[in-house]
Amino acid sequence: MNARAHQVTVFEVIKETADAVTLVLDVPQAVQAKFIYSPGQFLTLRIPSEQEGRGGSVARCYSLSSSPHSEDRPAVTVKRTAGGYASNWICDNVAVDTVLTVLEPSGSFVPRSLDADVLLCAAGSGITPVVSIAKSILTAGSGDVALFYANRDRESVIFAWVLDELAASFPGRLTIVDWMEEDQGLPGSADIAALARPFANRDVYICGPAGFTATTRTALAQLAVPPSRIRNEEYRSLEVDPFAEPEVRVASSPKAGRTAAPGAHTATIEFEGETYDIDWPKNEPLLDVLLAKGLDVPYVCRESACGTCVCSVRSGRTRMLLNESLIDEELDRGLTLACQTVPEADGVHIAFDQD
Ligand SMILES: Cc1cc2nc3c(=O)[nH]c(=O)nc-3n(C[C@H](O)[C@H](O)[C@H](O)COP(=O)(O)OP(=O)(O)OC[C@H]3O[C@@H](n4cnc5c(N)ncnc54)[C@H](O)[C@@H]3O)c2cc1C
């Protein structure tokens, strides 16, 4: 079992709408330090499954809807996906005192600062990380928050009462623009551009279905918002099971001297206070190489989307095969995703401690 997996007990189940529940979690004292999180991050839940080929469980990510700044216990909010396995299992089976196996928080959909003004764009269950960011900025920071929130109909609006309370408590700092598809149809890029225009100089955080994200990005491009100020969280189901023993995709690399084996580059890796000199096969992602060496490197999706395996290139040349989570500013700081990074020359130095 993944060393970052822990058992937590469900403290409370809150029915938010006919299709969505919030699970408030009781994290044991002994691991509370590992569950310190930033607004916008997510947990990964292990869901039992008897289905053939599922290996006894599936893993799914759920954003934390609680704020680490104003709530004692972490909470996730899950909306049923039509025909989906895990979301329906959670809504039908999880109750107070259910024990869940959960990975420590991760993710990079996190505000740069709680003191900066932001534009938040959410559709449907995409409100989950967004409400955590809004609560955190309003209660613990000094930034102003504009929220564009699209929903199919009034019955499906998650956190309507939370947003009403925030609006009443922070009247000068929170602007909410609701979009109701049953009345207005799907929002188009011109609609979103018109609503976003007064806030176009802010950092933007988008969470919702792929179509909503694409339309919002088009709107922001019309307003000339630089991509480096836009972050989005894409909801999708994991292909891999991060709770299982990691699938080793490369042959274990022997500890090298300073001369690389054929087809590999030399590299130095800093991880958890230790330094490793490795042979890094030219086409193998760093995460795969380190897992093959038995290092317990944090990861969730292995597809570049979640940002869990982020590390920093201190020197040397590398490239990423795919990048769906790091923005330009982070790339400029040398950050890279271990699950997608391959070497381009000898002498690469990478550290998992980003300070
Ligand atoms: C970082 C992150 C944060 C997230 N946060 C949240 C959150 O806060 N709240 C939330 O509700 N969700 C969130 N999600 C989404 C969540 O992880 C799941 O993807 C979602 O709950 C659906 O999972 P499921 O098992 O119910 O559906 P799945 O079983 O994975 O099915 C998903 C879709 O695929 C279809 N499907 C399934 N199997 C097949 C097949 N064999 N062939 C064809 N189609 C198929 C289903 O019909 C369904 O439409 C998040 C995802 C990520 C990556």
From TrEMBL:
Keywords: 2Fe-2S, FAD, Flavoprotein, Iron, Iron-sulfur, Metal-binding, Oxidoreductase
Superkingdom: Bacteria
2Fe-2S ferredoxin-type domain boundaries: 265-355
InterPro entries, alphabetized: 2Fe-2S_ferredoxin-like_sf, 2Fe-2S_ferredoxin-type, Beta-grasp_dom_sf, Cbr1-like_FAD-bd_dom, FAD-bd_FR_type, Flavoprot_Pyr_Nucl_cyt_Rdtase, FNR_nucleotide-bd, MRET
UniProt keyword Zinc present: no
Cofactor needs: FAD
Pfam families linked to this entry: FAD_binding_6, Fer2, NAD_binding_1
Domain FAD-binding FR-type, first and last residues per copy: 3-112
CDD domains: fer2, PA_degradation_oxidoreductase_like
Protein name: 2Fe-2S iron-sulfur cluster-binding protein
